[in-house]
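Predict the 3D structure for this chain.
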Amino acid sequence: MNLYLKYRPRTVEELDLAGVRKTLSEIIKSNKTSHAYLLTGPRGAGKTSTARILARIVNCEQNIKQLAEPCNQCSACTAILNGSAMDVIEIDAASNRGIDDIRELKEKIRLAPVALSRKVYIIDEVHMLTKEAWNAFLKTLEEPPAHVIFIMATTEEHKLPDTVISRCETFTFKKPNHALLAAAVLEVAKKEGCKLEKKSANLIATLAEGSFRDAF
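Done. Predicted structure below.
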């Protein structure tokens, strides 16, 4: 298994970026969720991992009365972790970017969740949607059904319409600095039972150019 997937963060506490940990922690403390989240920042910074953690937070069977870290053991959490949860739908907007794709999505979101408490749509590379698709999506994004949460990820926030950004709660991912990347590389090596010198970890961090995914 790819090491990045093997050691992908499973809880808020395990997320590498302090700013993202803080934002998610504030959501948990407030016990309130938005209908739409926008995750922006460089590739390999943990946007998809964060989206999946958030999907588990809102669906964890232990979090019915008060949001908390996902337990990662209940049937909802394990289904999301292994990719079998029918109510967590991941969409690649680079290949599903047209108005017909959005019309199909709008029809499906009306249906109640099959097994989970909330239906979560994770839309990656959302800046790739066409202008016509955005126009068709805006009303739904503004007032989705109560059982639906949208989590959209992009590396190019500047390509999104202002009307979209204003409808979302935004998480901003910063490129991890060299020291943080090198420390993460050393930690993964330790978990794998490998002895890695600091200079080697520093070289890997340099070559990864700010991407956790590339570093592992």
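Strands lie at 36-40, 88-92, 119-124, 148-154, 169-172.
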